[in-house]
Amino acid sequence: MIAMFRGILKSQKVIVICSLILCVLFLMALFAPWLAPNDPTAVNFVDKLQRPSLDYPFGTDHLGRCIFSRILYGARISLGYAMLIFMSALSIGLIIGIIAGYIGGWVDQLLMRLGDGLMAIPSLLFVLGFVGIWGTGLKQVVFGLILVQWVYYARVIRGMVLSLKEQNYITAAKISGSSTWTIMQKHIIPNVLPSLVVMGTLEMGWAIMNLSSMSFLGLGVQPPTPEWGAMIHEGKSYIRTNPALMVYPGLMIMLVVVTFNLLGEALSERYGIKRR
Amino acid sequence: MSLLQVEQVSHKFNSKRLFKTNNQSNNVLHDVSFSIEEGSCLGLIGTSGAGKTTLGKVILGIQRPQHGKVLFQGHDIYNVDKATQRKLRRDLQVVFQDSYSSVNPRMTAEQIIMEPLENYEKLTIGERRSKVVSLLERVGLSEKDLKKFPYQFSGGQLQRINIARAISLKPKLIVLDESVSSLDMVTQSLILELLKELKVDFGLSYLFITHDIKAAFSISDALGVLEKGELIEYYESKDEFFHSRNPVILRMRESILAEHPRFRSLTKNVKMV
Predict the structure, then answer these.
(1) Hey, is the C-beta of B119 within 8 angstroms of any chain A C-beta?
(2) What is residue A95's three-state secondary structure?
(3) A274 near A199, Cβ under 8 Å?
(4) What is the pTM of this model?
(5) Facing residues of B4 across strands?
(6) Is B1-13+27-91+174-181+196-273 assigned to CATH 3.40.50.300?
(7) Residue in B closest to A167 by C-alpha
(8) Is B18 helix (H, G, I), strand (E, B) or coil?
(9) Could you give the domains of chain A?
(10) Which of A167, A176, A187 sits opposite B93 (nearest CB)?
(11) What are B181-196's pLDDT values in tens digits?
(12) Nearest C-alpha of chain B: how many angstroms from A58?
């Protein structure tokens, strides 16, 4: 048992370590209310810009709020909404990609040209435009990011479905009386999903980066809600006197994005899946 | 009435795009007509690109031909209502050449063989299991193989699984599209033996599509020769193949390798040069 575990650890060091880090981060986000030593939004001007202490593990910000608690609560938003973006974009991409790839013809042309149109606009610009029309807020940013993101999944899935469709077992399934729905359920989705999850891991880092950058620009999460990008935004006026305000959330974003990317790379290398 | 009647089937592949239609297309099938009687096997011989596989697809109901009709048990398979089509599908199965790509790599042998049964028969889990086991045993595998995945089988074993899947619904006609062509000589003859046995046991008819004249000879009752999309020769009895004077047939006959190089005709070598 221990030997087996050690074997896995040795052969897939990167995958194991990255997954562990992410597990810890997700657990931290999940149990933030129990782990956080202070209320993340409680303003306390007496203790503002404190150095790290037992009461405030990472110190306090310009309004005297506990940075550590804010980072814990911020993880909920950053990781949670990144997950939401990932899942929604994946579902939309899966459905549209399968429809385009399996049905083909003008349906395929229509959906893919729509996708090309969306891809022609840089994603940041698209989300900015979206926020410009519908107003600032987390909802709009998340929605905009999903709208940008599904295209990548749809394209990859369409390609995979196109090559799967030519496999003899799909033909054999048709001949043995399976309906289109059964074929999708039994033959196409199970063969497409593993590569998608790998691709999604790579895209998670992207989602967190974008979510945080939108918040940094003041377009996403609004104060006083704690979010990593918004925390950097708030701390930027104190960069000379108290860089800690920016360093901690910045490091967290870096840790999460790098971990997701390393994990994605390792997974795609192991399972032989090309990026995009 | 014949089991299967193919009437004047012609087919072309047009490459259609959104804004342009490519008119340069080639006739894949041209005016092909033949029939298969119940309980018999028609061997269809042809070189690569002769249109064998397309003809197979047309008969299987997955490639609508541009002209002509395919009558299966008296119904035109491309012009019937959904319910009848479903019923006809049940009696028509296929075994492809590439045994590996004919099975979903993520399914076990049991799931693979069960697929047609699930679609057509309401069975309890126990009944299904025993049926799959009996099918596996019928094609020469054992109960141990139920939970194995395709990569754990050899090509010949996988082809047996494909055959088990094809016979699971007790169909009337099985299209064998180069089914034994990618197997080694020994496995090939074993599979051919199995097919012959099954034909008698289940009262099957075969359409045996191949480029391998020897294999076609060992299993077929009647023979057809497809060349450039046309059925150039059709023999009720396969021995007539050896009496034909058609130059295409002569070439084919010469290409059959003798058991030993010593027996190869000397004149052939001269002709080849």
Answers:
(1) yes
(2) helix
(3) no
(4) 0.77
(5) B36, B72
(6) yes
(7) B101
(8) coil
(9) 78-266 (1.10.3720.10)
(10) A176
(11) 888 888 888 888 888 8
(12) 49
